[in-house]
Amino acid sequence: MSKQQKRVAIVTGGGSGIGLAITEKFISEGIDTVIIGRDEEKLSMAKSKLGALCHTVCYDISNLSGIPQLVEGILDNLGQIDILVNNAGINMKKDFVEVTDEDFQRVITTNLCSVFSISREVVKHMLPKGKGSIINISSMAAQYGIPRVIAYSASKTAIDGMTRAMAVELSPAGIRINAIAPGFIETAMTAKALNADPERKGKAMGRTPLGYMGQPGDVADAALFLATDASRYITGVVLPVDGGNSIGF
């Protein structure tokens, strides 16, 4: 393969789990990758593991007003942004009637509003270039109803709608927008949730035709596909990477 020109990706929430796996995959393909995360320690661990192509920015993306400056700083430093992966997200498990307006808004701000804000700022840079790929990380919670995660479900369902609307508006300008809906993936976050709740875990696996949990690398492979010209004729899709969970019985 001929040596490709420089490519720069941003992965929000790239310090651990699925985000880190995506970052590793991109870097293994020679893509300069900027991880945005809140945890300085996780970021420096990732940086020391992944080396020179890994760039870290400690920032809480729920702070919407600083996002234009954040993107500007990355452009000043690296000169371009070709790929954006909107992976950062928070979850909260509570009975419906216990969720306060503040709880609900906090999840919506992080999982939805910040995705809009950072995408808008990155798109401003991609439009003049006539090229770019944005990948939103959705969820099974947007494919079917899951109890006790009302704010998360609302945010991820909105992400799917936003993915389609962005794709229709921006793809004529050469910018492709897609989403990945991971199923049950083995990360620290899901392990904690499912191992404490054997009944829920049994239910999850019972409706997953492949019968086992996925690995973060499975999502990373899909992200690399959607980020590169391998998927140049694909836009506006929500791709489940879920072992068949979303169509399982």
Automatic annotation (TrEMBL):
The keyword Iron does not apply. It holds the Pfam family adh_short_C2. NCBIfam families: PRK07231.1 (NF005559), PRK12826.1-2 (NF009466). Belongs to the short-chain dehydrogenases/reductases (SDR) family. Its EC number is 1.1.1.47. GO terms for molecular function: glucose 1-dehydrogenase [NAD(P)+] activity. It comes from Chitinophaga tropicalis. Keywords: Oxidoreductase. This is Glucose 1-dehydrogenase. The keyword Oxidoreductase applies.
